[in-house]
Write a structure and sequence with these properties.
Distance between the termini: 66 Å
Number of helices: 7
Strand content: 15-25%
Order of helices and strands: HEEEEEEEEHEEEEHHEEHHH
Largest sheet: 5 strands, antiparallel
Shape: elongated
Radius of gyration: 27 Å
Number of strands: 14
Oligomer: single chain
Length: 357
């Protein structure tokens, strides 16, 4: 104890000294780096008035290779009273650099043609990690017994296969709206930037090429689940599971929450009705800004099935668009992909009534 007390006192003193002499300005850069011919801007944000007018670009050897004015003061932002955009787009020499303005320096970053290589595919790691059904990150399955229909035009507790998709966040709820948004952006990214995506994973998310860009595999994973949540022209589900999920931290394959069907034995899936939803203590109490529409039904009331055919058509178009991009390199393989699923609401050769049991 005699040894610990002085150490604690010293740490407290260091903390106080650091606060008294703490930084008042920061230079933020793109930590991935910049391409030689691309825009290159750093941001200087300060909590106090500054006493310098220029900034410099410093190379790995400490040499000043570029100098410009910090430009106009763009004013307040958050806790900062002065903000500046430090533009060094004119400098194009590849290498490692820091931006320095007065006594303040940025972290080290690179200028190179390769700074973004693999970064788009890196983002897909998160999507694979969030998969429900078979989870390649865990190399195990979870939530395979989803789900039991709530508020639907069938007897309560009727089972329908809605396993798959992505867990929405740290919890394991799943939503049609957020999943549709993610799926759209995955396929739109491939449409606009097909050259940046690779093929290092199979359709199930495990290691190995399958001759399909990984972003298309991930988009298909989302589409397949969305079609399960919209199994018929006049049926649409909005949400899988509810706040009973918030029962502590656990891995998805260890999820044992009991929704009334037995521990880990399936979760409720909510049919869109346009009315407040939720069971017991979990009944929705949030209302939209017009005070006439509950949050839990906002998607249903907004769509109201009037645009349902457009949504399904757009899903099919996005899928076909991705496959069409593949056809240029391997037409026969593209036909194989199309044959795997007719994207009419059910897998090819499967009667939609068999989804209920």
């Amino acid at each position: 104890m005699k040894v610990i007390a002085p150490i604690i006192a010293l740490l407290l003193l260091c903390t106080q000294l650091r606060a008294a002499t703490g930084e008042t300005a920061w230079i933020r850069v793109n930590q991935l780096g910049y391409t030689p011919r691309g825009a290159k801007v750093a941001v200087l944000a300060s909590k106090q008035q500054i006493g310098f007018n220029d900034f410099e670009l410093i190379d790995a050897k400490g040499r000043v290779v570029f100098r410009r004015s910090i430009g106009i003061n763009l004013g307040k932002y958050g806790p900062f009273i002065n903000c500046y955009r430090l533009n060094f787009s004119a400098y194009r020499v590849p290498g490692s650099y820091r931006v320095k303005a007065g006594e303040f320096e940025s972290p080290l970053f690179k200028i190179a043609d390769t700074v973004y290589n693999g970064k788009a595919d890196f983002c897909l790691r998160y999507m694979r990690q969030q998969r429900s059904g078979f989870n390649p990150f865990l190399k195990d399955s979870c939530h395979t017994k989803d789900g039991y229909i709530i508020y639907g035009p069938v007897p309560e507790l009727t089972h329908i296969d809605v396993s798959g998709g992505w867990h929405d966040a740290t919890d394991y709820l799943q939503y049609t709206a957020t999943s549709a948004n993610a799926t759209y952006h995955l396929l739109a990214a491939y449409r606009d930037f097909p050259h940046v995506f690779g093929d290092n994973y199979q359709a199930n998310g495990l290691d190995g090429s399958n001759r399909v860009p990984d972003v298309v595999d991930e988009g298909r994973w989302g589409l397949t689940w969305l079609l399960k949540m919209n199994p018929r022209p006049d049926w649409m589900f909005n949400q899988l599971a509810d706040d009973r999920d918030h029962a502590g931290m656990r891995l998805p394959n260890k999820d044992s929450v009991d929704y009334g069907y037995g521990k880990g034995n399936g979760r409720p899936v909510y049919f869109i009705t346009g009315e407040p939803q939720g069971l017991g203590l979990y009944k929705n109490r949030g209302w939209y800004k017009n005070q006439k529409m509950p949050w839990s039904s906002i998607e249903g009331a907004t769509i109201n099935f009037a645009y349902e055919s457009d949504i399904r058509s757009d899903c099919r178009t996005r899928h076909d668009m991705g496959v069409a991009g593949l056809n240029a390199g391997n037409p026969s393989h593209g036909q194989t992909l199309l044959a795997e699923h007719d994207f009419g609401g059910q897998p090819s050769g499967r009667d939609e009534t068999t989804s209920l049991r």
